[in-house]
Amino acid sequence: MTCFAKDRPGSARAPSRLLPPGRAATIGPFPQFIVSDRPVPSKPWWSDGALGSGESRRRSVPTMSASAAARLGPYLAGIAFALLAGAAASAAEPKSLAVMDFELIDEMRQYESEQGRRDTDRRLAFITAELVRQFRSRGMYRVVDNAPAAPLIEKLRASYDLRACNGCELDIGKALGVDRVALCWVQKVSNLILNIDIEVHAVPTGETVYAKSVDIRGNTDEAWLRGVRRLVDNIEDRGHHTR
């Protein structure tokens, strides 16, 4: 048997030549192909007659016995159930939440200037709005509008701080039809040291689901915003919102 060896693309050209059986055709140091007397199969190796012997040969495929499949059945069903349950939990709708406005604990407020009090009140309002925005944008809670319960909230605020009203926040939660209600406050130790706090209660049971606090340094808009965002990060990282 003979065959022709052709030039390798990109190499120095060499004249075509006849090669004897069993010899490698090379251009430079690289063999191009091997010439062999072995017949080339006309069909893929996995089909009948692929080996040229005339016999029907097929590649064996591993199979599982019925008894083995029966034994594995309960385990596979358990795995499938766990996967489906996990998917359902991850796709579960976030809990509804009513966020009460941030309150202030500041024993030195009476000595603060009028401008300082206005700045503090403004910051309390915008970190309340930022907390709501963070919860909504991250999909952690369905934060509801408090407007339907506004008269009740104002009535209670006229007599108490909501964080210390002995469970009155649950009445607000029931009026709004939510799963959770959040009490929020800032404790101002000084113009340098402040704490931002949140306490979330389950409306049906009254239990405290979680309470978190972060310290901030500096009495500025940026410091307050950074603190409330860090508070939400902490809640999200620990999955407290899923409780």
Task: Describe the model.
The chain folds into three domains: 1-60, no CATH class; 62-92; 96-242, Rossmann fold, CATH 3.40.50.10070. Helix content is 34%, strand content 22%. The longest helix has 25 residues, at 66-90. It contains five helices and ten strands; from the N terminus they run E-E-E-E-H-E-E-H-E-H-H-E-E-E-H. Strand 9 (193-202) and strand 10 (208-217) form a beta hairpin. With 243 residues, it is an alpha/beta fold. Mean pLDDT is 79; it is low at 1-19, 22-36 and 49-58. The strands form three sheets. Strands 5, 6, 7, 8, 9 and 10 form a six-stranded mixed sheet that branches. The protein has a two-stranded antiparallel ribbon with strand order 1-2. Strands 3-4 form a two-stranded antiparallel sheet.
CATH architectural group of the largest domain: 3-Layer(aba) Sandwich
Beta fraction: 15-25%
Mean pLDDT: 79
The major pleated sheet works out as:
6 strands, mixed
CATH class of the largest domain: Alpha Beta
Structural class: alpha/beta
